[in-house]
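lol forgot to send this yesterday, sorry. struct tokens for the thing we talked abt
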């Protein structure tokens, strides 16, 4: 019995399977073995000491004058050989020796136990990894399967699909990477874990692990806009006036943010101050470009931005990326014009008089938010430029 207990202890430790579950499996396998051996097990009792692992199997039989069913009944004469107190109408317990079971019955019982162990192992793995859903874990690249990558998380392999990989990133076996656990599903062959390297939450979790102030709540991440492998914009805020949220995230000589950039294989990260005033938030989000004026309509979620002529390309960014990420981060449709374009468009405001805008005041304007001299970006990644082509037709790039 000591060998049984030792085996159970090993399974409990290595497979994370509760010992009582394994003892239940042994009990059920003995009952099934009796049923296979005798055709029924309704009158079978398994007496197991869960502390020592010792067990006995008994068949309870009715004492009768004439035996019609030998599995459930026993004659008075035979019953008295077992117990001198036996009499017609009473019951006697007859111990069954498991060593008397046939080879097939024994193998069936063994398979029942193994099947239960496998089921519990899969369930234990599901419970373990489902608790890590929406968290960042470290894995080791195992192999490339078609366009997908298998990442070992310790006890199981997770799947990193092509859509969840960082564009241009080449992963090789034995590479250690951090991944965001998207979903954990129970499957017939064990839990199926889907992970991501492109999800914005990956960046958030990396900041939580690298920046103490984010982890303890002193600095709050208010929003993230990400184009994986290229650029991320993140807005941060702290209610503590003595804490610089941007500085805390950057770290001394950029140590904190550089650790995250390295993990993301060189992805650029813009960290900006979050502000309740959407106009200020939009100005910050267009960093590193300088802004002359922002007119934000908080109800319509649209904003007009004027930048110096020489800053227009920087504000828009390569292929519109800077403006596109700013739109996603703020939730505003952003119409960006250079100072010259704004003047030629005949806007009411003289932007020279508005180097600073009122934190509390917003301006509503009716009509379209782009014209033949303006570039228009929104969170749906649409880009219109009326300056190309003839006839004033919009082109979607």
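and heres what i got for the seq, position by position
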């Amino acid at each position: 019995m000591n060998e049984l207990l030792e085996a159970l202890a090993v399974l409990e430790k290595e497979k994370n399977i509760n010992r009582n579950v394994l003892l239940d499996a042994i009990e059920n396998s003995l009952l099934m073995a009796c049923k296979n051996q005798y055709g029924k097990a309704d009158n079978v009792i398994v007496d197991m000491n869960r502390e020592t692992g010792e067990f006995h199997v008994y068949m309870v039989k009715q004492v009768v004058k004439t035996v019609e069913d030998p599995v459930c009944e026993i004659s008075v004469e035979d019953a008295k050989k077992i117990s001198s107190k036996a009499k017609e109408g009473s019951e006697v317990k007859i111990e069954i020796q498991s060593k008397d079971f046939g080879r097939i019955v024994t193998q069936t019982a063994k398979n029942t136990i193994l099947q239960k162990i496998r089921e519990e192992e899969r369930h234990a793995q599901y419970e373990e990894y489902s608790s890590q859903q929406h968290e960042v874990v470290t894995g080791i690249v195992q192999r490339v399967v078609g366009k997908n990558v298998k990442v070992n998380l310790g006890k199981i392999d997770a799947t990193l699909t092509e859509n969840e990989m960082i564009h241009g990133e080449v992963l090789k076996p034995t590479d250690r990477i951090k991944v965001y656990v998207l979903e954990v599903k129970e499957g017939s062959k064990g839990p199926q874990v889907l992970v991501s390297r492109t999800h914005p939450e990956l960046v958030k979790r990396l900041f939580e692990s690298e920046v103490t102030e984010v982890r303890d709540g002193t600095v709050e991440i208010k929003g993230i806009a990400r184009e994986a492998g290229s650029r991320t914009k993140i807005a941060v805020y702290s209610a503590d006036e003595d804490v610089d949220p941007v500085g805390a995230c950057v770290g001394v000589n950029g140590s904190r943010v550089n650790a995250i950039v390295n993990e993301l294989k060189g992805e650029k990260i813009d960290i900006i101050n979050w502000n309740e005033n959407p106009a200020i938030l939009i100005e910050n989000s267009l960093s590193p470009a300088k802004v002359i004026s922002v007119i934000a309509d908080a109800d319509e979620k649209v904003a007009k931005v004027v930048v110096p002529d020489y800053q227009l390309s920087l504000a828009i960014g390569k292929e519109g990326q800077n403006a596109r990420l700013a739109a996603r981060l703020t939730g505003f449709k952003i119409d960006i014009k250079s100072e010259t374009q704004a003047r030629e468009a005949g806007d009411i405001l003289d932007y020279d008089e508005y180097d600073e805008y009122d934190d509390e005041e917003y301006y509503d304007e009716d009509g379209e938010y782009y014209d033949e001299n303006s570039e228009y970006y929104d969170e749906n990644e649409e880009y219109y430029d009326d300056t190309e082509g003839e006839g004033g037709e919009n082109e979607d790039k």
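The chain has a mean pLDDT of 81. anyway ping me if u want another try
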